[in-house]
Specification:
With 127 residues, the chain is mostly helical. 76% of the residues lie in helices and 0% in strands.
């Protein structure tokens, strides 16, 4: 049988050497916030159904929603909502064929991150 000669080929980049880019992180964050808001919707629907069901069920749901953990979940869902909205607007801007250059896309991604934090703080202060 003939001897197999191995050819030295470069390895493709892997997670250990890959440098995450802001545009890829914002894309992943958009998907995460979209799914995370579903958890908040379930929590709010549970609270509303408990309010319609009876006093005992409402007291249980209300105690959970108004606890520190419920407050944290709802505050993070507000952050996710604002981020998801701003990222959606950025995506619409990209769909028009504008802002696709790397520096512009990175600035828009940073604006989404900063804008969502600022809008969340304003929302939480006003509410």
């Amino acid at each position: 049988m003939a001897e197999v000669k191995r050819v030295q080929r470069p390895l493709s980049p892997h997670l250990q050497i890959y440098r995450p880019q802001l545009t890829s992180l914002t894309s992943i964050l958009t998907r995460i916030t979209g799914n995370a808001m579903f958890v908040a919707v379930i929590l709010i629907v549970w609270w509303l159904i408990a309010a319609a069901t009876g006093e005992d069920a409402f007291e249980t749901a209300d105690a959970f929603v108004t606890s520190w953990f419920g407050d944290l979940v709802l505050a993070l869902s507000v952050l996710g909502m604002w981020y998801h909205l701003l990222a959606g607007l950025r995506h619409l801007y990209f769909d028009s064929g504008r802002g696709l250059e790397v520096p512009v896309a990175e600035k828009l991604g940073l604006a989404c991150l900063i804008g969502s934090v600022v809008l969340t703080l304003i929302t939480l202060i006003l509410v």
